[in-house]
Design brief:
By secondary structure, the protein is mainly beta. The protein has one domain: Jelly Rolls (Sandwich), CATH 2.60.120.340. The protein has a 4-stranded antiparallel sheet with strand order 1-8-3-6. It has a 4-stranded antiparallel sheet with strand order 2-7-4-5, with no helix packed on it. The longest helix has 18 residues. The protein is extended, with a radius of gyration of 21 Å.
């Protein structure tokens, strides 16, 4: 599934979340952050807000865009675990974020893991005694 959102001075944040009762694993990957039509030549800082291992909120800047020097940034499918919030920490935008959302059903993942482990065992060469 494709993801897209736009951050502006009137819409400073966007939260991507999944249903808490969903038994699937979700991966959100951010591909591109770019300035769009109407952007001023100012620093636009985009932060990702999430939770750390102690469930404390943390904000990490992922892009600092300026129309005259860096209007676009490729993040090479930067993977995140939902829920996650994208926030325009500085600037007025508009900043467009694009990426994808992958859903892995746990039953499917466990079957794939079993299949992979059996294939891996078959591909391994037999153990030979060391030469003395």
């Amino acid at each position: 599934l494709l993801l897209g959102c736009e951050l502006t001075s009137s819409t400073k944040s966007y939260t991507f979340q999944v249903d808490e009762e969903d038994d699937s694993d979700h991966i959100l990957a951010l591909s591109v952050v770019c300035l769009t039509d109407g952007a001023k030549d100012e620093c636009n800082v985009v932060e990702v807000v999430g939770r750390n291992h102690e469930n404390q909120e943390i904000a990490v800047p992922v892009a600092n865009l300026k129309l005259s020097c860096q209007p676009l940034l490729s993040l090479d499918n930067f993977k995140l675990q939902p829920p996650v919030t994208f926030r325009l920490a500085a600037g007025s935008g508009p900043v467009h974020l694009a990426g994808w959302h992958r859903i892995m059903h746990r039953e499917d993942a466990s079957l794939e893991d079993d299949d992979l482990s059996e294939e891996d065992e078959e591909d391994l060469p037999p153990i030979k005694p060391a030469k003395k």
